[in-house]
Amino acid sequence: MKHIASIFLALVFLANLAGTGFAGSINEFSCVGVVGIPQHECEALVALYNNTNGPGWTNRTNWLVTNTPGDWYGVTVDEGYVTFLNLYDNHLTGSIPAELGNLSNLMYMGLSYNQLTGSIPPELGGLQNLLELSLGRNQLTGSIPPQLGSLANLSWLTLGNNQLSGSIPPELGNLTNLNSLFLEENQLTGSIPPELGSLPLLQSLELWDNQLSGSIPPELGSLENLVALHMEMNQLTGTLPPELGNLSNLQRLGVAINQLSGRIPPELGNLAHLQLLGLHGNQLTGNIPPELGDLTSLQYLYLSHNQLAGSVPLSFTNLVNLELFHFDDTSLCEPPDPAFQAWKATVWSWQGTATCTFIHLFLPAIVR
After folding, report:
1. What predicted TM-score, i.e. pTM, was given to this entire model?
2. How many domains does the chain have?
3. Are residues 70 and 179 in the same domain?
4. How confident is the model at residue 297 (pLDDT cuts 50, 70, 90)?
5. 367 near 302, Cβ under 8 Å?
C-alpha cells in the first residue's frame, strides 16, 4: 500500500508541475497563440523541427521559443505567410515532414547540405508558388515524386548528391520555367526522358554519376538556352545525336565514361561558345570531324579511351584558345604540315616521334 501511495503522490506532483508551467519544457509547442502566420503554417514548421532533431541544429535561434515564427532562424514571413525557409547546412537529421506542403505561399525552400534521410514527400508538389527547391547533399532515398512536375513556377531544382533511385519522372518536362536541374550523384536508373527537351529556359542540366541507360534523346537539342549539359559516368548507349549541334549557347558538354558508339557528329562544330568537350571513355569510332576545328572558344578537349582512327584534323590549328587536348589512341596520326607542328607545341605535351604518336596527359577522374 505504501508503494501505491508513493506512485500516486508522484503523479500528483507531476500534474501540479504541469499546471504551473514548470514542466512546460517537456510539452509540445502550441501554435494556438502564434502571431504573424496562420496556425497550420506554424504547425508545419513545428513538424519540421520535431522531425529533424531541432534541439541538435547548429542554429535554432527562437525556434519554439517565441510566438512570432517570423523571427525564427531561417524563416521569412511576408504579408502574413511563410515565404522563405532556409536551413542550409544546419545539421538537420531525420525526414522531411509532409506538413511542409501546407506552406502554400512558400517561394524558397533550402534544406541542402544536411543529413536528411527518407523520401521526398509528394506533398511538396502542392507548393504552387515555389521558385526554388534545394534538397541536395543529403541522404534522401526513394524515387523523385512525379508531383514535383506540378511546380509550375519553379526555376531551380536541386536534388543532387543523395541516394535517390528509380527513373527520372517525365513530368519534370512540365516545369517550363525551370532554369537549372541538378540530379547528379544519385542512383537513378532508366532512360533520360525526352520530355526534358521541353524546358525552354533551362541553362544547366546535370545528370552525371547515376546509372542512366538508353540513348541520349535528340529532343535535348531543342534546349536553345542550355549552357551546361553533363551526363558523364552513366551507362548511356547509342550514338551522339547530331541535334546537340543546335545548342548554340552551350559552353560545356560532357558525356564521358559511358558506352556511346558511332562517329562524332560533325554538327558539334556548330557550338561556337563551347569551352569544354568531354567525350572520353566511350566506344566512339571513325575520324575526328574537321568541323571541330570551328570551335574557336574551346579550351578543353578530351577524346581518350575511344576507338578513333585517322589523323588529327589540320583545322585544329584554328583552336587558338585550346589549353588541353587529351587522346591516347595510338592509331591517330599527326599531320605533317609545319603549321600544325608549330601549333601543337603550344597546346599540349607531345610524346613520341613516330608518325602516329602516343600522347600522355593527366586525365581528371571527372571532367565537368
Report:
1. 0.87
2. 2
3. yes
4. very high
5. yes
- Find the CATH number of the domain harbouring 108: 3.80.10.10
Checking DSSP bridges between strand 81-86 and strand 75-78, what pairing results, if any?
antiparallel
Residue 85 resides in a domain: yes
For residues 124 and 264, state if they share a domain: no
Same domain, 186 and 57: yes
Distance CA 268, CA 279 (A): 12
Under a CB-based contact definition with an 8 Å cutoff, are residues 285 and 308 in contact? Answer: yes
How many alpha carbons fall within 13 Å on the CB side of residue 126? 10
Instruction: List alpha helices for the chain, DSSP H.
Output: 2-20, 39-51, 338-344
Range of the domain at 240: 223-360
Q: Is residue 2 part of a domain?
A: no
Quick: pLDDT tens for 230-281.
Answer: 999 999 999 999 999 999 999 999 999 999 999 999 999 999 999 999 999 9
Pick the closest to residue 268 from 225, 301, 309 (CA basis).
Answer: 301
Indicate whether 185 and 227 sit together in one domain: no
**Beta-carbon neighbour count of residue 353 at 10 Å?**
6
Asked if the structure places residue 19 within a domain, the reply is no
Measure Cα distances from 241 to 132, 194, 260, 328 in Å. Answer: 31, 12, 11, 24
Are 127 and 56 in the same domain?
yes
Measured over the CA atoms of residue 43, residue 44, residue 45 and residue 48, the dihedral's sign is positive
Q: Residue 209 corresponds to which cell in the numbers above?
A: 554519376
Domain membership of residue 327 (yes or no) is yes
The per-residue pLDDT for range 63-78, each reduced to its tens digit, is: 999 999 999 999 999 9
Is beta strand 108-110 parallel, antiparallel or unpaired with respect to 307-309?
Answer: unpaired
DSSP string, 78-130: ETTEEEEEE-TTS--EEE--GGGGG-TT--EEE--SSEEESPPPGGGGG-TT-
State whether 127 and 264 are in the same domain: no
The CA–CA distances, whole Å, from 186 to 56, 163, 165, 183, 206 equal 27, 5, 7, 7, 11
